[in-house]
Design a protein that fits this description.
mainly alpha
Length: about 160
């Protein structure tokens, strides 16, 4: 038994954990931590130091993008991921999934959409924002009026430049 203990002690010391054998409370906390990994379905991380290092380094990645608060808050992380999944699903349905890889272009398109909405509302046509098919009716009438005016010599009303 002494030989087994000495072998165990050597393994702990080589792993930099020799202090755990002198502090029963520290050993208890360490074993509880190991059990927590196993209970969470991530016991595999205890067998692969590189995988554990990568797993623990994920917080730095979140911090890099100003999202470090999500790492310690499962509910906030869940909400964030649900929102992303819904955004992705919406963009895919619209055939705009390429914008997930190009946030600048997504921003530009949303800016143009906001500007278009502002202009339509400034001309009292905010209803077009809610029902874009109205724009087709408006443009059809505009083209008809433009054509009629052109036939009577008033095309400069539409093309003053």
């Amino acid at each position: 038994a002494l030989k087994n203990f000495l072998g165990l002690k050597k393994l702990f010391e080589e792993a930099g954990l020799g202090h755990l054998l002198q502090d029963p409370e520290a050993l208890k906390r360490f074993l509880a931590l190991a059990q927590t990994f196993k209970d969470a379905g991530r016991g595999d991380l205890l067998d692969d130091p590189e995988a554990l290092k990568d797993f623990l380094g994920i917080g730095a990645v979140f911090d890099e993008f100003g999202l470090g608060h999500l790492v310690g808050d499962n509910e906030a992380l869940r909400t964030f991921l649900e929102n992303y999944a819904q955004l992705k699903e919406t963009l895919v349905k619209l055939g705009l999934e390429h914008l997930l890889d190009n946030p600048e272009e997504l921003g530009r398109q949303l800016e143009r959409l906001n500007e278009l909405e502002r202009i339509l509302k400034s001309f009292g046509r905010g209803d077009v924002v809610e029902d874009p098919s109205l724009l087709a009716e408006i443009l059809s009438r505009y083209i008809g009026l433009e054509k009629a005016c052109g036939e009577y010599g008033f095309s400069d009303l539409f093309y003053p430049y």
